[in-house]
Amino acid sequence: METSPLTSNALTSTRLGSGQMFDRIADRYDFVNRVLSLGLDLRWRRLATRALALAPDVEGEVLDLATGTGDLALTIATLHPKVSVLGTDPSSNMLAVGQKKVADRHLSERVRLITGDAQAVDAADDRFLGATIAFGIRNVPDRAKALAEMTRVVRSGGRVAVLELGEPNVGILGPFARFHVRHVVPRIGALLSGQTEYRYLQTSIAAFPSADAFADMMRAAGLEDVTYTPLTLGACTLYVGVKP
User: Fold this and answer.
1) Which DSSP state fits 137?
2) Are 81 and 111 in contact (CB under 8 A)?
3) What is the DSSP string of 156-169?
4) What does pTM read for this prediction?
5) Adjacent-strand bridge partners of 238
6) What digits encode the pLDDT tens for the residues 146-177?
7) Domain 9-242 has CATH 3.40.190.10
């Protein structure tokens, strides 16, 4: 398994997966994601939105942690026109890109993106209809704390949906997909973005807990009826839990 180290001097002084790391790739993040995922990340976010199981006419607010450039927040607001979304992220540059997208889609009244830490959500208990985090939980130093925070701020009966990348392991095409994640993704990412941060992507995916282990973490955070669904040969997994 490849575990290529990051070699730039700038990166050695910055925690891998931190907001500062993503600040450096914010202007290319969306483009590179579309290329590396072959556009599938858009479908995955729609599935995460549907997994919240919100009624068509429901009114209220959803929390999107590690919102990045706001793609999932925008998807939620688009599919649920009476719902508002609060997105938080530690990267100010990623948020700046997201805020422009929000304004371009005329959703500023319903989508608010602010700086925030998934491990310490500045919100009252039972505030949100549901909570999401897409491709960000693996970068949180204390994942258990982030899951506990998501559980705390969601109303009883509300859902927590987590999208996270993984090493594909489903079907006969699994080995080819794993080769793509381990070798192609970091190289293409670095080439397109001009940064070596995308080498971190593969190593962080490989270090993420198994689906069973992460589902147990969600249960330990207080969620019930936890399920997980591998998507696209297991390249991505959708985890869903319900607050009792």
Assistant:
1) G
2) no
3) EEEEEEEEEE----
4) 0.85
5) 163, 229
6) 999 999 999 999 999 999 987 666 555 555 55
7) no
